[in-house]
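User: Run a structure prediction on this.
Assistant: Running it now.
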Amino acid sequence: MQAFDFNYGPRLHLGAGGCGRLADLVPEGAVLLVTDAGVRRLGLCDQAIRALEGAGRTVVIFDAVEADPSAATVLAAVEAGRSAGVGSVVGLGGGSPMDVAKLVAYLIGSGDALETIYGVDQARGRRLPLVLIPTTAGTGSEATAVAIVTVGGAEKKGVVSAALYADWAILDAELTVGLPAHITAATGVDAMVHAIEAFTSVRLKNPMSDMMARQALDLLSRNLLTVVRDGQDRAARGAMLLGAHLAGVAFANAPVAGVHALAYPLGGHFHVPHGLSNALMLPHVLGHNMAAALDHYAELAEIVSPSLAGGSREARGQGLIEALTTMCAECGLPDRLSMVGVAESDLDLLAAEAMKQQRLLVNNPVPIDQDQARALYANAL
């Protein structure tokens, strides 16, 4: 067996009302709570705040995180934390608040400058204690050592370092019960893409990440339509959170690839939510990869659609794409780029921007150059 490294990520607590344990998981002193205005308005922070304040902690709230957070937002949160002298950070929300929280905990703790840590393993200092609490079952950010920010108005840059792993992740299904169906659908597909791309990554794929990816895809594919149709189903919500977390552990060790590389420009330039961007590009990139990834896709097909078992490799591989496309449609997600504001005149820009995601493209089973990226966007138009 080929040698590999594997990181399980943060310690994990899963359970309804888990936010009530928060004060036990962070040290004494002031706590910076990083979230967004929508999450705070919905009252999803309330239990966490009560738990901390009930234990005598000062809670400093930074709720200005936007979708596709900017470097400026990260720096504003750092300043808020430093000014208050916080000793720990809690990120509560979707992927954006959790990504910002990871960077803030690291930048305050290490004293490094943000512009010096972009890329892989450039962040080598020490961060503040960190707890992450997702309110969507999708990004898996609570499980990963990756944070993505937008710079220059549209370009996505990533920080990838073991220093960003949280100390604890809390998976509390109660926080996801009120999530609207379209967000539930998009974030759920995002998590499925994490599992699929981790399983087919040509770099760092290993038996442990494969095990996590398969289990994640099973939980997610069996429960996605249930939670879209009945958001109050707490058992299904909990299964989705666990599935998204396991997918996060998988891709933290075996990184994502072409789907994400082509999805990022859609978020940066057209503000398409990340999960929906992945859903829009998923069938086209999987089709592009089919020749090289057929065996892997055939294996995953039986997880997503057990009725495909027993068919030929080719039938199962194609069946995977069809099953995922059908699932996205049944969730009510748009299936064409034109439905989210993209025109043919935008394709050259998108293809050029996708080429900036080389850290992801190198993981793809089949190379994607700029002309091929444009063709994939055209197919999705």
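Strands lie at 11-14, 31-34, 59-62, 88-93, 119-120, 130-134, 146-151, 155-160, 168-171.
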